[in-house]
Amino acid sequence: MNARAPIALLAVLLAVAAGAPAQDIPLSSRLSYRDITVSLRDGTVVRGRLIGATKDSIVVRQSGEDKVFAFPDLRKVLIKTEARPSEGVAPGIALGLYIGNGLLTWAPGEPGFYLQHIDSSELASGWLLLGEAFFAAVGAGAGWIAASGGGRQAFEFPTEAGPALEARERFLRFLAGEPPPARVHFLIQSGFLVPGSSAQFKDFMDASGYTESYWQYLSTFSGMRGLELSVSVKPRLRAGLRLSFPSEPAFDFYYRSDPDAGFSSGAIQEVRATAVHGIGAIELIRGSRAGKISLSAGLGAGIAGVRLFRQAWTYVSDDYGGSQVYGTAEVRKTLLSGVVFGALQFPLTRVLSIGLAADYTLIPAVDVPALPDNGLAGQTVRLSNGSVGFVLGYHF
Fold first, then answer.
1. 338-352 pLDDT tens trace
2. Distance, CA of 314 to CA of 16 (rounded, Å)
3. Are both 5-82+150-175 and 184-395 of the same fold?
4. What's the Cα-to-Cα distance from 258 to each of 201, 215, 315, rounded to whole Å?
5. What integer pLDDT is reported at residue 234 of this predicted model?
6. Radius of gyration of the chain (CA)
7. What pLDDT does 319 receive?
């Protein structure tokens, strides 16, 4: 981008306000002599190459002849942009590592995509490092290929005076090198669980005389807490859908025993949940130019499908070798749900951002039946929970 382009554009706009004669607006180097298609209000379509612009018009070269088109005559302009394969490398690596890490720990097979606990010897494993390198390379290659085709940028010019002026200024800023704001947003959120049902289950088991097991299979980090696909309906407002997984892993395992009496028992609880919300989000803080830090917050409403599974076992030894009694309680429901969320995002490239994110998913409580043969009473279980972690964003 030409570093003097924004200054030159500001000078032109000030000159217009003062009634000065029209001046040329310097084109960004990536747009000079680019293919352009101009649709006029009288139905004429002109194809050529963009070679210049002023505050009042654009200049298109067609068959060796320069033609000037005034902004009031324009209905739509379509410009072919230059391919930049290198811009796809960083987003590709990020997505490749994200998917690769999930596959290496097989998070898709776990409730809520919770990662397994990995010890230090596994982190130093050559196979793990090789897998990371492989997925990063695949992602980089895919990103390079995806960004190699170039693209097209479209601008429409309304007939109303106010919107027409806004569209013209947005078009002139684009010609001077400022990329237009993204309209489509795809966000991937990961994070550490802020428990609801698990914390309540822990208190319940503590009161029942159970002790927490020191060994847990899953961590409390969800590799895919939520996915968002949204569209900017206003400069600071976006709307869309959010698919989230407010599950809680079966990490709360408790047991109690009395060796002298030949008695032992244990219990475990797991919550699997998938929620779909229609959401709206607003940018509370946004830089004046593309590529600045963004702080947003949003709300959503929808439904959540929930499966709560609780299992307990009791073993009592006797003269005949002993007996073991199992008890299970399961609740399956589809419930109304809501979500509140926020994110602080930092741009890495024009299309990729990373940041901090948090959410709280609201799901009504459910009643879990008692397990009398195992000494566990019935319970009303809160299913709402939250997450604090990270977000990876793609903006187009």
1. 999 999 998 888 788
2. 85
3. no
4. 22, 20, 10
5. 87
6. 29
7. 61
Domain range summary for the chain, segments of one domain joined by +: 5-82+150-175, 85-146, 184-395
Q: What are phi and psi of 291, to 5 degrees?
A: 90, 15
| Residue count (the chain) | 396
Q: What's the CATH class of domain 184-395?
A: mainly beta
CA angle 283, 388, 331 (to 5 degrees): 110
| Under 8 Å between Cβ of 255 and 227 | no
> What percent of the chain is helix, strand and coil (3-state, nearest 5)?
25, 50, 25
Residue 66 · residue 51 · CB < 8 Å? yes
CB burial of 125-141 (b: ≥16 within 10 Å; e: otherwise) equals eeeeeeeeeebbebbbe
Architecture of the CATH domain 5-82+150-175: Roll (2.30)
Pairing of strands 74-81, 151-156: antiparallel
Q: What does the alpha-carbon distance between residue 132 and residue 124 come to, in Å, rounded to a whole number? A: 12
